[in-house]
Write a structure and sequence with these properties.
Blueprint: H1 10-13, H2 44-54, H3 56-63, H4 74-79, H5 86-92, H6 104-108, H7 113-117, E1 126-129, E2 147-150, H8 157-163, E3 164-167, E4 170-177, H9 178-184, H10 192-196, E5 199-201, E6 213-215, H11 225-230, E7 232-239, E8 243-250, E9 264-273, E10 279-287, E11 289-291, E12 298-301, E13 314-319, E14 329-338, E15 349-360
Parallel strand pairs: 1-2
Antiparallel strand pairs: 3-4, 5-6, 7-8, 8-13, 9-10, 9-14, 11-12, 14-15
The chain binds heme C (5 copies).
One heme C binds at residues 33, 66-67, 70, 73, 76, 91-92, 94, 111, 115-116, 158-159, 161-163, 192-193, 196, 219, 221-223, 260.
Length: 367
Amino acid sequence: MLRDLPWCPLALALACHAAPSAPRDTASVPAMPGPTTAAPAPDRVALNDGCVRCHAPQAAEWEASQHRSAYADPDFLHAVATERGPFCRGCHAPEADPARVPAQAEGTIGVACVTCHVPHGSDASMLAEGTLAATTPTRATPAPHPVTRTAAFADVDACGGCHEFAFPRTPALAMQSTLTEHAASRFAATPCAECHMPWVDSSVGSPSDGAARHRSHAFAASRDPAMLRAAIDVQAVREPGGRVSLRLTPGRIGHAFPTGDLFRRLWVDVQAQDEDGDEVAYDARALTRHFAGPGGPITHDDRPGATALRDGIVDVAFELGDAADEHPIAWRVVHQRVALPHDGDDAEIFGEIVVTEGRLDAAGATP
Ligand code: HEC
Ligand code: HEC
Ligand code: HEC
Ligand code: HEC
Ligand code: HEC
């Protein structure tokens, strides 16, 4: 059975069925959001319905977000088609008891308003950012519920409980390491929300929301072409002998590109084309976390922004051969979601977006 897990390299599959580790907490600050480890209080879905009714702008954005569809979306259901472990459900259906298959209402709300703002085990006051900054608009209406202001909620702590974790039975092997990457990036001092929850207009707002603007709850990232483009700058150069080199420099991104799930990669390809646009020569490379084999370890990590790289820069060189010299060369950088962290062109692709592309004139032509 375990062998059939489609999302796990074989031996890693064994690691995926232990109990999740306890969420991070300290005595001095209120509990921060994280994976669910035990049956939640019974009234959480109804509590969430209340947030949605009164905070319409945030609710409309969240309803179309991947947080909301964390359990219900087809990619996740495909990934857990063979085994639906409590480990996975602790983060993807955090409003359900991880020990059993979620009730429909619990699964549908995925990572919900209450998951972040009223973490399990806390009292019923809503977490909000710590200090009302000068840029924060004054609220026209007072909240009809208690609000706990804590600086931690405006920082990486609001996200870190779920966005960095290891294989439960292989603690040395990271399944996701966005926080570590963030701490090593030149945006280490920029909280996740600064990029993923930008200020937006509240004019679509509800009568109860007195503010003119709020932080977007759409949590845009890998499905948003504009964000993907912001992540990277590419310089392409060609030389005789069909040689092409691409330099990928991280842009406005606070971690490796791509980060998060292991089943993502950048596909960099180059193609010499004849006058009809037909292929004369082709080559491609996958930039990702490369595994030695089933069970790891990760042998090398050539994602732009990876922690081991100098300034996060990646140089990719191709040789298309002398025949390419008289032809233009088209290049592309594509963000792909794949079934396995495959290096090759035989991976099953769930979705892809061209991040950026360009064209180099035939050698000898005026640059
Ligand atoms: C009966 C309506 C109502 C319900 C239900 C409700 N809120 Fe509120 N909430 C408000 C109003 C009104 C304010 C003050 C104006 C504003 O900030 O939008 C507020 C303020 C807040 C704030 C503070 C905003 C700030 O920085 O000043 C947060 C966070 C918040 N609510 C979250 C939630 C969450 C999460 C839920 C569900 C658990 C919820 N609210 C349920 C009406 C409601
Ligand atoms: C500690 C929290 C946590 C646990 C446990 C967890 N995930 Fe995730 N998962 C995430 C986060 C955070 C993301 C978003 C990262 C990204 O988009 O790259 C994610 C993304 C995914 C995605 C990509 C979804 C998409 O639409 O792009 C799949 C599929 C997935 N997880 C499957 C699983 C499976 C299967 C398990 C159980 C083995 C699991 N996850 C366990 C936090 C978790
Ligand atoms: C993934 C975690 C997460 C989820 C899910 C989430 N929020 Fe938030 N929310 C935040 C964070 C973090 C902030 C504060 C960001 C900052 O100011 O630094 C915030 C801010 C707010 C605020 C303050 C006003 C503003 O700037 O938007 C309200 C109100 C609010 N959220 C309501 C909601 C409601 C209602 C839902 C569900 C429809 C929801 N949130 C879902 C994390 C979350
Ligand atoms: C309770 C766990 C949890 C918390 C807390 C949490 N996330 Fe997530 N997040 C997830 C999961 C699970 C997914 C994957 C959903 C999917 O696509 O299936 C996700 C997806 C995302 C995505 C979309 C990734 C993509 O592939 O496009 C972004 C962006 C994101 N989270 C940012 C944040 C930020 C910013 C915070 C803190 C304010 C936060 N998250 C807090 C669990 C969490
Ligand atoms: C300086 C801006 C910036 C900061 C800070 C930042 N991100 Fe991102 N993030 C981006 C951009 C741009 C993308 C789109 C490229 C991509 O999808 O990888 C992205 C993508 C993502 C994705 C989707 C990855 C993928 O490709 O599947 C996740 C998950 C995510 N961020 C989580 C986080 C978390 C958690 C933090 C805080 C620890 C954070 N980000 C901090 C800019 C930022």
